[in-house]
């Protein structure tokens, strides 16, 4: 077996990417501290062609070399906006017709494997701070909460791993039926 070369990957240009159909998802970062995590979220969002990324609170904004180190240019392809608080992002996204979903371990959460996104809905997926998770004030504003089943001793994935799992699941359930 031979690995494909970069010129064999049929990668879209930034303009082609911006014009293509998107996964009906906005990724919301609730006070994410690590710029490497932020850059990786951009890169993962590009990989699954999400509509937008919303950066909230202390979450750093591009351009920044520490974000670009892991984003590898995805800050240029993915639409993004900054909000002083996650509640401002939620209000805007809700007004734009998004269903607001926290990715968190919580009472009455829905396990990811049992959640089925509707093809006619748009979703704002909120990923929380690396230490404290999704903020309590945000948890009071959500429409639903999705939890990733875990089976080890930590019951804690890195935010980028969580985003990758959840975005793949949404992409597969909506686009690979």
Count the beta strands: 7
> How are the strands of the largest sheet arranged?
3-2-1-6-4-7-5
Radius of gyration: 16 Å
Net shape: globular
Approximate helicity band:
25-40%
How many discrete structural domains? 1
* % residues in beta strands: 15-25%
- Counting copies of identical and different chains, the oligomeric state is single chain
Q: Output the number of helix runs.
A: 7
CATH class: Alpha Beta
Structure overview:
With about 180 residues, the protein is an alpha/beta fold. The chain has a single domain, classed as SPOUT methyltransferase, trefoil knot domain (Alpha/beta knot, 3-Layer(aba) Sandwich), CATH 3.40.1280.10. It is about 35% helix and about 20% strand. It is built from 7 helices and 7 strands; from the N terminus they run αβαβααβαβββαβα. Strands 3-2-1-6-4-7-5 form a 7-stranded parallel sheet, sandwiched between helices. Helix 2 runs parallel beside helix 3 and helix 2 packs parallel to helix 7. The longest helix is centred in the C-terminal third of the chain and has 17 residues. The two termini are about 30 Å apart. The mean pLDDT is about 95.
């Amino acid at each position: 077996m031979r690995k494909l070369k970069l010129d064999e990957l049929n990668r879209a240009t930034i303009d082609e990417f911006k014009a293509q159909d998107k996964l009906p998802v906005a990724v919301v970062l609730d006070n994410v501290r690590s710029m490497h995590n932020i850059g990786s979220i951009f890169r993962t969002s590009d990989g699954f062609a999400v509509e937008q990324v919303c950066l909230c609170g202390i979450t750093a904004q591009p351009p920044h070399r520490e974000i670009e180190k892991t984003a590898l240019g995805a800050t240029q392809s993915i639409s993004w906006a900054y909000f002083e608080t996650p509640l401002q992002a939620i209000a805007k996204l809700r007004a734009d017709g998004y269903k607001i979903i926290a990715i968190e371990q919580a009472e009455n959460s829905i396990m990811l494997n049992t959640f089925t996104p509707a093809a006619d809905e748009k979703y704002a997926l909120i990923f929380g701070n690396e230490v404290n998770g999704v903020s309590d004030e945000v948890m009071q504003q959500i429409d639903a909460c999705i939890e990733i089943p875990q089976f080890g001793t930590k019951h804690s994935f890195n935010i980028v791993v969580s985003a990758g799992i959840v975005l793949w699941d949404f992409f597969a359930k909506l686009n690979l039926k």
